[in-house]
Write a structure and sequence with these properties.
This is ABC-2 type transport system ATP-binding protein. Helices cover 34% and strands 29% of the residues. The chain is α/β, with parallel strands linked by helices.
């Protein structure tokens, strides 16, 4: 169990974290989402000991994290920390030894990971000569080479094509099945919804939602009324009840129970109604509402 408890961090007058708390259980994949500058990377750096919090704690199984704990973590920073002139296989092997593997053990782990991540043909290439997507795969191999007990990945899917995304998702699912807590941040909310057991949404340094994906979508029996009206003026919802979120022609009404017929009449008068119905919110819709 990894616990983030009431983290606060300030840079001068800027509040980066304001009481951030959540936990990641063994065998759980936790998606950490938020806009740029919301506090995701700062939280992960504090978890890894790269930064220090002004207050709050990071714990593992109820005790404060120590240096030896973090040595058994796999960390993938958003900014690639790779040696550009070193060859791919040499680099992964090197980091395997830095993390305590024997030369033979590091060589075996390197070969296995390069095959899993479709990098075998690039083993002899310098990292700097690779595409950004392939560099991302190498960074992931570096994070996984020592068979870490916890995974902390900052935007691991950034720059990957769909095939690479599927390969990475399969590797992470295997680690989760082995009981490893997996924490990763991403702006790809559809991917987070598909892969993760739980999600935390952070906005301006505060956690605005944290729960299982299923619980967030079904919270308090909550449904959204989704209405798509073509040709309507932006102000057609003026005076209607409910918590309203707009995205082009699509309008979402939360807490609009009992007023759906009123909304339907207004939509029909405003333009061509192409969609009108109740549905459970997607993670993207929950995110938009939470950070609004």
């Amino acid at each position: 169990m990894i616990e983030i408890d009431d983290l606060h961090k300030r840079y001068g007058d800027k509040i980066a974290l304001d009481g951030v708390s959540f936990s990641v259980k063994p065998g759980e994949m936790f998606g950490f989402v938020g806009a740029n500058g919301a506090g995701k990377t700062t939280t992960m750096r504090i978890l890894m000991g790269v930064l220090f919090a002004d207050s709050g704690q990071v714990r593992r199984d109820g005790r404060a994290l120590a240096f030896e704990d973090r040595r058994r973590f796999g960390y993938m920073p958003e900014e690639r920390g790779l040696y550009q002139k070193m060859k791919v296989a040499e680099q992964v092997h090197y980091f395997g030894q830095l993390n305590g593997l024997s030369p033979k053990g590091a060589a075996k782990a390197t070969g296995d990971l390069l095959e899993r991540l479709a990098l075998t043909e690039r083993a002899g290439d310098e990292v700097g000569a690779l595409s950004l997507g392939n560099q991302q795969r190498v960074q992931l191999a570096v994070a996984l080479v020592h068979d870490p007990e916890v995974l902390v990945l900052d935007e691991p899917f950034s720059g990957l094509d769909p095939i690479a995304v599927d390969a990475l998702a399969e590797v992470l699912a295997e680690r989760r099945a082995a009981g490893v807590p997996v924490l990763f941040s991403s702006h790809q909310l559809d991917l987070v919804e598909r892969l993760c057991d739980s999600v935390g949404i952070i906005s301006a340094g505060r956690m605005v939602a944290s729960d299982t994906v299923e619980a967030l979508r079904a919270r308090e029996g909550r449904r959204l009324l989704k209405v798509v009206v073509r040709g309507a003026t932006p102000d057609w919802t003026t005076g209607l009840s409910g918590n309203i979120t707009k995205n082009g022609d699509e309008v979402l009404f939360a807490d609009a129970n009992g007023s759906d017929q009123e909304i339907l009449r207004a939509a029909t008068a405003a333009g061509t109604v192409e969609h009108f119905g109740w549905e459970r919110p997607t993670l993207t819709e929950i995110f938009r509402e939470a950070v609004a």
